[in-house]
Amino acid sequence: MLAELNAEDRLRLMRFICSFAWADLEVQDEERGFVAKMAAKLGLSDEEIDQVREWLEVPPKAEDLDPSQIPREHRQLFIDAARAMVVADGRVDPEEAENLALFEMLVQD
Q: How many domains does the chain have?
């Protein structure tokens, strides 16, 4: 399913994943590892990887995180990736759980 994403949607997915890494206001090493693995699976270019690294240093802007822009056919993929990010460091903080629940509600029809 990841292979079905175009360049814009690949970066959109990574933007959301990075935003979930910041949900507890701190990006853990395990979360960085998850982001790196996802970037590799998506086959991101060097330029795209540089952008993702920036999002791990400074969170993506809220106005760049519009769930309504996620194509319908990829919504479950985005939810699954967000869930995986939330548990990547082995614990789920209340802020992460709340953000995930809100995201799921906004993305689902």
A: 1
Q: What is the domain range of residue 81?
A: 2-107
Alpha-carbon distance of 56 to 79, in angstroms, equals 19
Q: Could you tell me if 20 and 35 are in contact, meaning their C-beta atoms sit under 8 angstroms apart? A: no
**pLDDT tens, residue order, the chain (109 aa):** 787 899 999 999 999 999 999 998 999 999 999 999 999 999 999 999 999 999 999 999 999 999 999 999 999 999 999 999 999 999 898 989 999 999 999 998 6
Nearest CA to 39 out of 50, 25, 30, 28 is that of 50
- Any idea what the CATH number is for the domain that residue 59 is in? 1.10.3680
